[in-house]
Amino acid sequence: MFRRQRPDDEEGISPRPGDRREAGYYSLQDPYGSALDDFDNKFDWGQHGQKPKRSWLKWPSLPSWGRRSKRDSGDDVAPEIEPGHYPAPVIPATKWQKRRKWFARGIALCLLGFFLIVGWLAFTAPLSKSLEPIAPPQITLLASDGTPIARSGAVVDEPVEVEELPEHVVGAFLAIEDRRFYSHWGIDPRGIARAAWSNLSGGPRQGGSTITQQLAKFTFLTPEQSMTRKAREALIALWLETWLTKDEILERYLSNAYFGDNQYGLRAASLHYFYRHPENLKPEQAAMLAGLLKAPSRLAPTKNYDLAKERMGLVISSMVEEGYLTAEDAASLPSPKLDVRARNTLPTGTYFADWALPIARKNAEASYAKQALTTTLDARLQALASRVVGRAKLGDAQVALVAMRPSGEVVAMVGGKDYAKSPFNRATQARRQPGSTFKLFVYLAALEAGWQPDDTIPNTAIEQGSYRPKNSGEKYSDELTLEQAFASSSNVATVRLFQAVGSEQVIATARSLGVESSLPVGDPSLALGTSSMTLLELTSAYAGLAGNTFPIEPHAFEEEEEGWLDWLTSGEDSLSARTHENIEQMLRAAINNGTGRAATLPIANYGKTGTTQNYRDALFVGYAGDLVVGVWVGNDDNSSLGGVTGGGTPARIWREFMRGALSLAPPKPTSAPDPEGPVQPLDIGEGETIVIDENGSEISFDEEGITFSTEVEGVPLELRIDEDGLNLEPAPPDR
Q1: 555 DSSP 8-state letter
Q2: Contact by Cβ (8 Å): 528, 513
């Protein structure tokens, strides 16, 4: 190979001793030049033999494209090198050095991934929840007078303390569930390996989870089986071992474990099965309870005593192996006798309880203790509502009743004829059309806009436009006052008033009274109650009107008294005294002179009937005294009631309930007048009505004749006597 010789400079001066010769310089002048060339290539002249520093995490550098192109360009001019500063030669890395670099990088990436996974698990795992009871405690609902009305939820009792438990009680659980509990750090590799070997070799099925891992599993209330869940359980187990002592972990485990029969925790289970506290358990009783943890529902001794006894024998054998019992003591242990005394005689659900319990769960604090919460329900009124509904002639139809105070305290609730047959709550869950009871919002919006009860509005048939509602019985007149239109439930007058006031104003009025259901803007049929809502929602709106404070939030538990700051920020509203007086005047006219006459009481009463198209729904909502009551009758399949109107069955249910609730005795017949006294005039004015019995039968007089109205088996009938003779026809429904 040709090597370029470096000549002396032009003045003939030889290079300085410190100047480095390029490889090949000696090869032309000395027989040992090739050896010196090898020495030059290996020796670091510029760094005086020092090793270049290396970076373990530095990626291997690639040759610069610029340098490569310059080197390969064929330029025969060598770069000038400053004497005494020669670049260090590039020493290629060995295979071991390359492997060591990639191994270090792999370790770094694994550590980074591990920390990311741990961080994600820590963020998604409910660490704090692992220190709380796993099941909501048993809640007993009490009526306002302290009478228990329903009980629901898991039976959870006070937690146990390991120091207070006998050795054979603690030993029973450790022997069968986690023998190395006090020596491992939350995860037991030896236990996992032993369980895996037993399962693979055909031995008895075993699990490798420690008590700490089982406690971690309690925080997951879903049966999910995945690697993610297992990883979270392991992380929570390590977290528990870090922050809690072994005794604290064992106490939480024993106080949370499920023992079957809806019993959570050792104290609740020992009281339930043996009627004794865990501190007083006998060895055989403790062994049976410890054996239940494998399959609590299947092994519960109240259901499968033989299986529970068989499992108890395995626990006792494990206790002997671990030294908690001697073989002699184990052989002499008798079969434990059950002593189940605690009986739950209260229903687990009622219509009111199903509505109130979720509210109670939301507001109750996490606790091991049983809780008894006092509700607003009045036991006397609830019993009265059940009797009244039970006596009503409903046929196959369903019924719902809600009674509340003007403040929103619900004191009685009926969601159907029979809870056992149908727990569906028609008072809080069923969304049905309110019919003419919705007209309240139309007329109230008109009063707020400046209309007066004696203002008139046309009552003629609507013969233009796409929406042409009709009055019941297609009875029309030239005009009616607002009070008359509301009392007679005129559809055409209400729609005209709705259009005059505007749908936005009517909807705003309904919203202000607490109606949250969907209300379509610009739909004239809305005036006749075609938008669905619940009976509870509708009754709450009437309650706000009764107390002239709205909106009203119906509640099942007594609310704390508002402070002045809460009162300022509550957003409550009220009507002016004049407007409130006018709307109540119209409500009285509807119940005393209009479609709600069957609900008339001997005291001031206010209400409105409602009947939807084709008699699908019949309603009456009203108030008297300090009670606001809504009644609905209908079929679950939304089929016709066959002529039942809001002024019929619902109005009579409302009246009967109100009479009992307000302690209103039925009217007694007056004594015969003194024949010697002054004679009172018995003339009846035109347009007046006389109620003649408690079934809503009545006689009305007008200038054309006499009308007798009654209802036979739910079908309203009218007997009319006028100049044309006697006519009998079904009574027209109100809308």
Answers
A1: B
A2: no
Residue matched to tokens 């039976």? 155
Q: How many CB atoms lie within 10 A of CB 604?
A: 12
Q: pTM here? A: 0.68
DSSP 206: -
Q: In sequence order, which ranges of 469-559 are alpha helices (DSSP H)?
A: 482-488, 491-501, 503-512, 535-547
CA angle 5, 8, 12 (to 5 degrees): 155
Q: List Cβ neighbours of 193 (8 Å cut-off, separation of 6 or more).
A: 208
3-class DSSP state for residue 2?
Answer: coil
Distance, CA of 151 to chain centre: 19
106 class by beta-carbon count within 10 Å (0-12 exposed, 13-18 middle, 19+ buried): exposed
Say if residues 217 and 178 touch (Cβ distance below 8 Å): no
**Torsions phi, psi for 84 (to 5 deg):** 85, -5
209-255: pLDDT as tens digits? 899 888 888 766 455 666 666 777 777 788 788 888 999 999 999 99
How far is C-alpha 298 from the chain's CA centre? Answer: 30
3-class secondary structure, 85: coil
Angle between helical axes of 167-177 and 211-218 (0-180°, round to 10): 90
Q: Are 448 and 579 in contact (CB under 8 A)?
A: yes
User: What count of other Cβ atoms lies within 10 Å of the Cβ of residue 149?
Assistant: 18
pLDDT at site 239: 79
Question: What is the model's pLDDT at position 592?
Answer: 94
Among 308, 332, 176, 344, smallest CA distance to 254 is for 176
Nearest to 396 by CA among 429, 422, 430, 428: 422
Which structure tokens are listed for 207?
């699990």
Q: Please state the φ and ψ torsions of residue 706, each to the nearest 5 degrees.
A: -125, 140
pLDDT digits (tens, 9 = 90+) for 500-535: 999 999 999 999 999 999 999 999 999 999 999 999
Q: 289-298 long-range contacts, Cβ below 8 Å, gap at least 24?
A: 289/172, 289/259, 290/172, 290/173, 290/175, 290/176, 290/177, 290/315, 291/176, 291/315, 292/259, 292/260, 293/173, 293/176, 293/177, 293/257, 293/258, 293/259, 296/258, 296/259, 296/260, 297/260
- Where are any strands of DSSP class E within 647-697? 689-691
User: For 44-91, how does the pLDDT look when each residue is reduced to its tens digit (9 = 90+)?
Assistant: 544 444 444 444 444 444 444 444 444 444 445 555 555 555 566 667
Phi, psi torsion values for 314, nearest 5 degrees: -65, -40
DSSP-assigned states of every residue in 328-379: HHHHTPPPPPP-------S-S--HHHHHHHHHHHHHSPP-SS-EEEE-S--H
Cα-to-chain-centroid distance, residue 447 = 40
pLDDT of residue 68: 43
Q: Where are the alpha helices (DSSP H) in 4-142?
A: 33-42, 65-71, 95-124
**410-414/689-691 β-pairing:** unpaired
In tens, the pLDDT along 630-640 reads 999 999 999 99
- Three-class DSSP category at 287: helix
Q: Which is nearest to 503 in space by CA: 531, 474, 477, 483?
A: 531
Peptide bond into 732 cis (omega under 30): no
Structure tokens at 456: 């008139």
Neighbours of 420 (CB within 10 A): 8
Looking only at the bridges linking them, the beta strands covering 725-730 and 617-624 are unpaired
Dig out the tokens for 245 from the structure. 């002592």
